[in-house]
């Protein structure tokens, strides 16, 4: 789809004219450190999204564990264990090339989300790895995030989406299965049915 040039916003002045000035509250809520109120959000969150940027493009990766899985080392530092996955390591490759990261924390049942921007480093320090052991298994690395800005996002998006409303949840079978997606896209004889049958147990056995 091509946007008509007459209807495309391509400069900051035009954008500011369209949207106006940000509210006072939206500016006052931003801090350069982890305020005790924001600490509470992070400690209550079992899920977050990690956004990174690198030479091959952008990436947003879901991360989850029991609430508080992102540890607060101090008011300016977060520690994120890198759990077992598919070894694409898109986020980590990006961090090596560009340390800038953005984190979005969600808390089940809560409308507000918490946003953290900063710069990250990848650590394999033995003490850090041991700190995040689960089921006797340590993560391969820990992302050390040096916090630059922290602020909460108002609840409008989650209210509009009704994200936490059980009434709108759909059955997983209403969407294509993971095996079918890989089989249809790959078109290389991949056995999607066998993949789907083995998936539940494989996920259970490879969480950590």
Automatic annotation (TrEMBL):
Native source species: Achromobacter aloeverae
InterPro entries: Pyridox_Oxase_FMN-dep (IPR024029), Pyridox_Oxase_N (IPR011576), Split_barrel_FMN-bd (IPR012349)
Domain of life: Bacteria
SUPFAM superfamilies documented for this protein: FMN-binding split barrel
Spans through the membrane: none
Name used for this protein in its record: Flavin-nucleotide-binding protein
Source lineage: Bacteria, Pseudomonadati, Pseudomonadota, Betaproteobacteria, Burkholderiales
Matching Pfam families: PNPOx_N
Limits of the Pyridoxamine 5'-phosphate oxidase N-terminal domain: 35-154
């Amino acid at each position: 789809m091509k946007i008509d040039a007459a209807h495309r916003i391509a400069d900051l002045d035009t954008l500011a004219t369209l949207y106006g000035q940000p509210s006072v509250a939206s500016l006052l809520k931003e801090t350069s450190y982890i305020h005790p109120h924001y600490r509470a959000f992070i400690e209550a969150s079992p899920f977050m999204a990690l956004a990174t940027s690198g030479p091959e493009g952008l990436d947003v990766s879901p991360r989850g564990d029991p609430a508080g899985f992102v540890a607060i080392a101090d008011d300016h530092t977060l520690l994120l264990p890198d759990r077992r996955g598919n070894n694409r390591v898109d986020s980590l490759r990006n961090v090596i090339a560009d340390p800038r990261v953005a984190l979005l924390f969600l808390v089940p049942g809560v409308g507000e989300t918490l946003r953290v921007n900063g710069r990250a480093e990848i650590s394999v320090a033995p003490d850090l790895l041991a700190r995040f052991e689960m089921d006797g298994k340590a993560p391969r690395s820990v992302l050390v995030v040096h916090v630059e800005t922290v602020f909460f996002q108002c609840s409008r998006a989650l209210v509009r989406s009704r994200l936490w409303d059980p009434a709108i949840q759909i059955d997983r079978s209403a969407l294509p299965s993971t095996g079918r997606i890989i089989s249809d896209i790959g078109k290389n004889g991949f056995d999607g049915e066998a993949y789907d049958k083995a998936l539940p147990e494989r996920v259970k056995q490879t969480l950590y």
